[in-house]
Amino acid sequence: MRGTDAERASLEIAIIGGGIVGLILANGLIRQNVKVRVYEQAQGFREIGAGMAFTANASRCMELIDPAILAAFRASGSVATSNGDSKDPNDYLRWIDGYNRHADDDPYYQKMLFKIDAGYRGFEGCRRDQFLEALVNMIPPNVVECKKRLDSLEERGREEKIVLTFCDGTFAEADAVIGCDGIKSRVREILFGQENPASYPHYTHKVAYRGLVPMDKALEALGEYKARNQHNHIGPNAHLIHYPVANQTMINATAFVTDPEDWSDDKQMTAPTSRKIVEDAFAGWSPCVRALASLLPEKLDKWAVFDAWDYPAPFYNRGKICIAGDAAHASSPHHGAGACMGVEDALCLSALMKQVSASIQENAAIKGQALSSAFATFDAIRRTRTQWLVNSSRRVCDLYHQPEWGDPTRWVKAETCFEEIKDRSLKIWHFNYDEMLENTVQSYKRRQEVFQGTRNGILGIHSNGCVKIGSETGLPPNTGEVDVVI
């Protein structure tokens, strides 16, 4: 094959953003022999040392993308968020009364309100910075460029490369661009425009205070069982969640508090504060909650919780430009599943790039069309589930913060929320990734068949150049009408 032909038959993908999802996707594409460049605006990969957790399903998705990713996660100090015991080693999510029912003769007593069995290693927690470092170490040299803040994208034609311009005046080219640049995504802003509220996240009126607490101190504050297992202390207008990380040497603790005021600067999502503010917010709560709050750093940041609930993205791609992870569907953290959804995105995109590679090996002249079709498939497969998570995370936080928790006459009413919380949690945990992969591949192939003219059933052409096709074209059942870029 001549050099020019070889270049046409290869893929070059630019990933904007070197966070957890961006690096997982990069590793997945490298495994598919796709040429990848990751552009990260920061000077280096020094994440804050906060904790994060992944469901068993997300761990399995990591393994399907590349077994080395799951190995890196486990090697970075991941630990089951609920340690269990020899009789019952499964993980559980637990909600306990953080506000009301105490026992004068037992300062550690808190009523268990509800728990859900997440299965063996159903949730695993790690330090974010350690996992990020492990992912960076997997990437070959010269793949990641730091200090590259994206300024603009120039689309010169479907079969032409996209030109990326950075704020330092440099340029790059790629066959396609995937924005994994987080909640303040520049790629999302380029897709929807500066004046569109869907280009930006919006304040949820919740603030978070988080920190890592050494396990020996946590044991003193919480007692053995609570310190070594995930617990969510709930009450009126606030909750505090914690779970072990770093091989059980620390716990990650995060307190969420309702804020009725507007956030003053939506460009800056943190503000310096003090531990006393947290202690005041939880005054009158369980002694365990107050003791844990007192172990947070004396000086810490207040994190404004933003998400994409108010103005969700109307689509996840335009031609050969795509957004994924928080750039597409930034969620509040109350399900603990935002990063899990990003891992599912990465699995879907990895499978699609494998299909595109196969398509252009047969016909290199359709590379741009194949990439556009793949990203349209990604939008069709992933957008409904991920935007549901954004909504559901808001909903469960409202249930955690019910004012009824502070009124003994309303406790029974408040506790009716847990069946709903269970249903929402199981929808996240029991995701059928095999079915997603099957539908992804089938949907992409149907689009390509339509492009090749092997099927009928074209219903019309949208103004954006997409062909509208229906279920009679042979798409998987229940997918409805889809847009196919040709």
What secondary-structure arrangement, pairings included, does this model have?
Layout: H1 3-8, E1 12-16, H2 20-31, E2 35-39, E3 51-55, H3 56-65, H4 67-75, E4 79-80, E5 91-97, E6 112-119, E7 123-127, H5 128-138, E8 144-145, E9 150-155, E10 162-166, E11 171-174, E12 176-179, H6 186-192, E13 202-214, H7 215-222, H8 224-227, E14 231-235, E15 238-245, E16 250-258, E17 270-274, H9 275-281, H10 287-293, E18 299-307, E19 317-318, E20 321-323, H11 326-329, H12 338-362, H13 367-400, H14 411-415, H15 418-429, H16 433-451, E21 458-461, E22 466-469, E23 482-485
Helix pairs in contact: 2-5, 2-12, 3-4, 3-12, 4-5, 12-13, 12-16, 13-16
Keywords:
alpha+beta, 16 helices, eight-stranded mixed sheet, single chain, 37% helix, six-stranded mixed sheet, disordered C terminus, 486 residues
